[in-house]
């Protein structure tokens, strides 16, 4: 399985992102004026520019919480609940991880995606798609772009605190990577999510289908698998994503067991590159795909935030130690047990 990247180099001012540091350096230094301040109203100082080139993503310094002059006394559970709702979700996640003696750096979206799809990746690596897979249930094959979007929903949903890596703040998507949270406008955030899910799982799925087409001698089966590949290609095209076949190698990834691949082996992949280029997505369908993906990502992010909130409130109910830590940190006092 290809190694998952840590994500692109991102400009904290305009949201521009690119996969090469040289291109980011050109963006930062080869312009007379600073790029538009779309994401953040900040000046790209030399210190910030160098930080971006070293670390890919610049994180603004955390805001210092102003401590009230006296303690807030909450008499009822509803008052505590209202206060908890005002705390940043990532901050609440840090509280939970600290209470469970877990390192916040273990919270990482790419790692979460690996855990979520590890069984599917193991299943499809070394296997090829077959025409009757969707009937037998042995192999995963998407029958519509909606099923492709379901995979993004799976990637964003967290089952426990370390998996809750995607959150939302208004129209900004917050993604946790290696224990650091970064905020993005929705479209940029979705592209980062798609890149990671592709790298971890969907690229393997694409190769799995092409391997099936190349390995079966039956013309009808080839056609059925091609139709499944077209479903996936339509999903990528609508979201302006690049197929993995553009950089895949025939001899090592499609037919690694062939002892003597002919000299045109890699040229065989050109058929699939051309097939992707010919994919037509109507404007209305393109809008539907983008709209549904945005709704799924926002829904998953909101669900993660709700689960984090519930976890904090439950700990406040049942755990005296957590209550003490919470009250000390936020200089509040909750008399009695809730």
The major sheet is characterized as:
3 strands, antiparallel
Low-confidence stretches: 132-138
**What number of structural domains do the residues give?**
2
Distance between the termini: 49 Å
Short description:
The protein has 338 residues and is mainly alpha-helical. 54% of the residues lie in helices and 7% in strands.
Helix-strand layout with pairing:
Blueprint: E1 9-10, E2 17-18, H1 21-29, H2 46-55, E3 72-73, H3 77-85, H4 89-99, H5 109-124, H6 133-136, H7 145-156, E4 166-169, E5 172-177, E6 180-185, H8 186-215, H9 219-238, H10 250-254, H11 270-277, H12 283-318, H13 320-330, E7 332-333
Parallel strand pairs: 3-7
Antiparallel strand pairs: 1-2, 4-5, 5-6
Q: Explain this structure to me?
A:
By secondary structure, this protein is mainly α. The protein folds into two domains: 9-55, no CATH class; 89-256 and 264-309, no CATH class. Helices cover 54% and strands 7% of the residues. It contains 13 helices and seven strands. A three-stranded antiparallel beta sheet has the order 4-5-6. α5 runs parallel beside α8 and α12 (283-318) packs across α13 (320-330). It is globular and about 75 Å long. The model is unreliable at 132-138 (pLDDT under 50).
């Amino acid at each position: 399985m290809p190694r998952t990247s840590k994500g692109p180099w991102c400009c904290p001012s305009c949201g521009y992102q690119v996969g090469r540091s040289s291109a980011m350096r050109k963006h930062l230094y080869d312009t007379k004026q600073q790029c538009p301040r779309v994401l953040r109203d900040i000046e790209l100082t030399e210190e910030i520019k160098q930080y971006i080139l070293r670390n890919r993503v610049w994180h603004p310094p955390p805001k210092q919480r102003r401590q009230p002059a006296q303690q807030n006394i909450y008499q009822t559970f509803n008052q505590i609940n209202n206060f908890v709702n005002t705390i940043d979700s990532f901050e609440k996640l840090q509280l939970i991880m600290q209470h469970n003696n877990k390192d916040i750096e273990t919270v990482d979206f790419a790692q979460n995606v690996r855990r979520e799809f590890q069984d599917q990746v193991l299943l499809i690596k070394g296997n090829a798609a077959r025409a009757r897979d969707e009937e037998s249930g042995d192999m995963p094959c998407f029958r519509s772009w909606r099923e492709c979007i379901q995979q993004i929903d799976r990637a964003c949903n967290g089952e426990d605190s370390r998996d809750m890596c995607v959150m939302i703040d208004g129209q900004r998507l917050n993604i946790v990577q290696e224990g650091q949270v970064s905020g993005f406008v929705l479209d940029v955030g979705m592209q980062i999510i798609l890149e990671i899910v592709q790298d971890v799982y969907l690229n393997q799925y694409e190769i799995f289908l092409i391997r099936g087409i190349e390995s079966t001698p039956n013309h009808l089966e080839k056609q059925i698998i091609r139709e499944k590949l077209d479903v996936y290609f339509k999903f990528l095209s609508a979201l302006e994503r690049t197929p993995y076949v553009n950089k895949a190698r025939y001899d090592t990834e499609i037919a690694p067991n062939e002892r003597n691949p002919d000299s045109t082996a890699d040229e065989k992949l050109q058929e699939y590159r051309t097939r992707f280029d010919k994919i037509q997505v109507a404007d209305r369908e393109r809008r539907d795909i983008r709209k549904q993906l945005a709704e799924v990502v926002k829904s998953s992010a909101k669900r993660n935030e709700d689960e984090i909130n519930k976890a904090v409130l439950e700990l406040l109910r049942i755990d005296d130690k957590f209550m003490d830590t919470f009250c000390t940190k936020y200089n509040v006092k909750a008399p009695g047990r809730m």
